[in-house]
Amino acid sequence: MNKADLLPAPHFSPFDEDAASFITWVESADPSDCDLDKSRYIAGMQGLINSGLAWQLQGTYGRSAMNLINGGVCHPPSLKRKDMH
Questions:
Q1: Any idea where the domains of the chain sit in the sequence?
Q2: How far is CA 85 from CA 1, 5, 42, 82, in A?
Q3: Rounded to two decimals, what is the model's pTM?
Q4: Above 50 in pLDDT, residue 45?
Q5: Residues forming a β-bridge with 79
Q6: Given this model, what pLDDT does residue 4 score?
Q7: What is the rounded CA–CA span in Å between residue 38 and residue 84?
Q8: Interatomic CA distance for residues 52 and 37, integer angstroms
Q9: Partners of 7 in the beta sheet?
């Protein structure tokens, strides 16, 4: 198998400063703040979904990720895979 057989979607790595910055931003946001940057939130959640971190963090991230996927706002993580057998 060569690298072209497995092409991951762009994502945060578990130690990516961008993921940490996004999580810090989300955790410090005021839930009543109507000016929350929705495009930043969606892009950040897509990064967490792509990397799998959404399901490794506290439950609210996984639930939010599933709601965004089910609502068509985000898409499931995708990998282009060829049969590995």
A1: 15-22+36-76
A2: 10, 12, 36, 9
A3: 0.69
A4: yes
A5: 8
A6: 43
A7: 38
A8: 22
A9: 80
